[in-house]
Amino acid sequence: MKTGKKNSSNILDLNRSLQQKETEIELLQQTFTDIGSELDIEKIFQIVSERALSLINAETLLIPILDANCETYTYRGGAGKNATEIIGESLPIEFGVCGWVWKHKRPWWQGMLNELSDEEKNRWEHEVGNMILVPLQGKKHFLGGIAGLNKNDSAGFDKKDLNLLQMFASIVSIAIENAMAVKNMEDSHALNENYRFKLEHLNKQLIESSKELEYLSLFDSVTALPNRSLFYDRLSREIVKAESDGNTIGILLIDIDNFKDINDTLGHDLGDSLLNKIARRFYGEVKHNETLARLGGDEFIIFLPGHNQKQAARRAEKFINNLKDTFTIEQNTIVVNASIGVAVYPEHGKNIGNLLSHVDFAMYEAKKSSIKICVYEPDHDNLAQGQLAMVADLRKALDQKQFELYYQPIISTKSKKIVSAEALGRWYSKDRGNVPPGIFIRVLEQNGLIDEYTYWAITTALAQAKVWKSRYGIKCIAVNLSPQTLMHPDFKKKIDRIIKNKGDGELLTFEITENLFLSEFDRLAKVLDHICSLGVELSIDDYGTGYSSLSRLRRLPVSELKIDQTFINEMVENKDDQAVVHSTIELAHNLGLTVVAEGVENKSALDLLTKLGCDSIQGFLISRPLPVTKFNTFIEAQ
Ligand code: C2E
Ligand code: MG
Ligand code: MG
After folding, report:
1. Positive or negative CA dihedral for 201, 202, 207, 208?
2. Considering every ligand atom, which ligand is closest to the CA of 434?
3. pTM of the model
4. Which residue ranges in the chain fall short of pLDDT 50?
5. Distance between CA atoms of 631 and 409, rounded to whole angstroms?
6. What is the 615 CA–ligand 3 centroid distance (Å)?
């Protein structure tokens, strides 16, 4: 009977434990099904916490997960008593039992105490209470753990709970790891989207402000007439047209008499509104194919396509007559007179430089003799006579190869090594001595001789670059290109003859000026693309002194900006210059351009430029421009 009773209680126990096992297996299977296809990490933490809570019959269940910073962990999920208060809390990685588990990558339960050293035992015994914590080990990373606190119905978590929770952890860890990866991906995608949005917004702002800048850089703010740059641009196109059509162009330079006195009496604001009124009267005289511009101060200029000397002089009279009626500005009645100089293409000059200096001369003649209108008269113009002699000398200099190139080293701010050099023209004339390039280049340009000179300079620099590349590893030589040469219809043909392959092209950089961007944009883009296809890099010289529009700049294959020396000279003392240099460097880098600073004369400028991230520098601090032999000595001494 006794054995019978014992047997039946054994069977009952067995039944109970079988039933429990079945419940457990079912719970594990259900959990596995529920989270297997779930990618929402928060939902997974919630399911896992609730299931684990009932699996080990704990009062509270928590899921501490290591944070991405690897310095803290955060309770990301939980169920049972007080769990909601604890979820979200972060603790330092070495803190508490979790710290112990992270460190040893082993589970914690009370049975562990026996395996600890006395010191560790003393430390943990009080803190732990009734706790079980198993690690969550993903396939790729250690994730954190699952912790149970206070067993509901007995003294503590036993070995069976440990095994069960470990098995549970190994099943759910993969789902947790996957969902965390998806969450990370989503987060970084959202971050990307956010950045993209911000970038688009910034780009829009940039385009808006560069449009505004473009307007400001082309129109005069007082009169809303085109400014000097736009006038030059339009006149240069008109000259190209007139050249092919065999037409003439009249040019009038109008200067208001004694405007300084008017300005002093009325004050600048009223002076400006008078200029505006004058501009409007003049504008009434202008036909659709003519351009009236304000050159600055009290000077207006207009070009008149198809006008010869007589016709242009007659139009000048009309402008003068237009001023006969007095002006009224805030109850002041003002009488305005003007003097007008007249010059005509092509008799008085074939390019802008010549035409403008001659119309200027004529205007001063008019002022001097108070005849109001004066047509340019070459015999009266000593300067022009002097220039004629210079032109003859330059023609000879080209034929006799009197020009020489000097080279100025350009160093990298990082390596402090010479990476390239700029070729600068020098002319020593027996009669005139050393003539600076600022003068002879301009005269060459104004007299149709610049192309021949430039092709000579490119050829010479290329030959030199080949020598220095193999001897000193110098990457390339920069050559200055006049806009005229670049925009000449024959440029492509001529340059193809000099630069025969990409290897040659890569030894050269062409320096061009910002104002080029004002001219026929599509044609310019084509020319620049062709230069790039030859391997030649393009650099914008004297950046900051001209009128380049950002929106145009970014559409051209330019790779470098050279900040003009006027900004560099005083940047150490002058905060405004420093700000310009700083923002130019940032802007250039944002557009993917490198930056060279010109005219670096002292160490403090070099240090500051290095700090601001400027890529390379050129200036007297490193060396003045040198003839070939001296350049060799200089580089060998380095
Ligand atoms: P750029 O192309 O801007 O050349 C730099 C000028 O700054 C050079 O004057 C150079 O000697 C000077 N420079 C360099 N470092 C310093 C410095 O630390 N301090 C100071 N104060 N000046 C420095 P350079 O040789 O008199 O040439 C003047 C301009 O003439 C050049 O300006 C360039 O626009 C033009 N140029 C020179 N050679 C040629 C050429 O072969 N072709 C064309 N088209 N233009 C040329
Ligand atoms: Mg230059
Ligand atoms: Mg320059």
Report:
1. positive
2. 1
3. 0.56
4. 1-2
5. 8
6. 16
